[in-house]
Automatic annotation (TrEMBL):
It is found in: Membrane. GO terms for cellular component: membrane. It comes from the Eukaryota. It holds the Pfam family Epimerase. Residues 4-144 form the NAD-dependent epimerase/dehydratase domain. This is NAD-dependent epimerase/dehydratase domain-containing protein. It comes from Paxillus involutus ATCC 200175.
Length: 267
């Protein structure tokens, strides 16, 4: 399967890239970003062969420009792509202006989803089996408490949560209008910390952080767990509770559900 990853230089995205390269179910990985990801770290050593055999890096200055009609090079590069893990974004406080926050968080994501929907609609499904016969999967890394109603202005990090909820709504709408050729999956991790970071804290701080990961899965989550679930979701959903929600097919997973999913994968 061919997987597209964005945000591969970021905190979660770099783990997504590592897991995708190590996953034998994924035969091709394309990274699109402004800068190429680092491939020289010790954690990349065991996937060196995969880097050579299945990784393609495409750099673009403007990640808001996804032109299906005009950008034949990108269309050709992604013609057989079956999933995207989208890790571009951040908190409102990470950006200089609200306009820049909206451009990166909303415009980049929605433009890419519309582009990939057209890619999916152009792919032949007659005679296909397995993953190739299934809809394109857009796996969006959102945030805990994302508010699709857009009215949570008095909550903690309201601007971030309202924007993430707005993006979620747009993605689900694009998927619903794709004639069954695309599906949107939303993942809402809590406060994300890295396993290596926890170990590096040492002493009491490390003990407290580790306890938080165990006892508060709805609040604190390990970056490696999030990444593993995002990659696994792009390929297949194998457990009933992951497939079905109270109102039908499931499309949104909260932080504690991501933790359970990751543990089921042996993480």
């Amino acid at each position: 399967m061919h997987l597209l990853i964005t945000g591969a230089t970021g905190f979660i995205g770099k783990h997504v890239l590592l897991d995708a390269l190590a996953d034998n179910r994924i035969t091709k990985v394309t990274v699109v970003g402004r800068h190429p990801p680092s491939l020289d770290g010790n954690d990349m050593a065991h996937v060196k062969t995969a880097i050579i055999n299945k990784l393609t890096i495409i750099t673009r200055e403007d990640l808001g420009n996804w032109d299906y009609e005009g950008d034949t090079k990108l269309v050709t590069a992604l013609t057989d792509c079956k999933a995207c893990v989208w890790c571009i974004g951040g908190k409102a406080d990470d950006f200089a202006t609200p306009q820049e926050f909206e451009r990166v968080s909303y415009t980049f994501t929605v433009n890419a989803a519309n582009f990939l929907c057209k890619v999916a609609q152009s792919q032949p499904i007659e005679g296909q089996t397995g993953r190739a016969a299934q809809p394109f999967r857009f796996c969006y890394c959102s945030t805990k408490g994302a508010n699709r109603a857009g009215d949570g202005w008095f909550s903690f990090e309201a601007q971030t949560r309202n924007m993430k909820g707005r993006v979620e709504t747009a993605l689900l709408s694009i998927a619903s209008e794709s004639d069954g050729r695309m599906t949107a999956f939303v993942f809402r991790p809590g406060s994300v910390i890295g396993g290596a970071t926890v170990k590096a804290l040492g002493g009491l701080a490390s003990t407290v952080a580790s306890a938080g990961l165990r006892l508060m899965p709805s609040v604190v989550i390990n970056a490696e767990w999030v990444a593993r679930v995002l990659v696994d979701a792009s390929v297949g959903i194998r457990v009933e509770w992951q497939r079905q929600g109270p109102d039908g097919d499931k499309n949104t997973w909260e932080s504690e559900e991501i933790v359970s999913w990751s543990h089921g994968l042996g993480v």
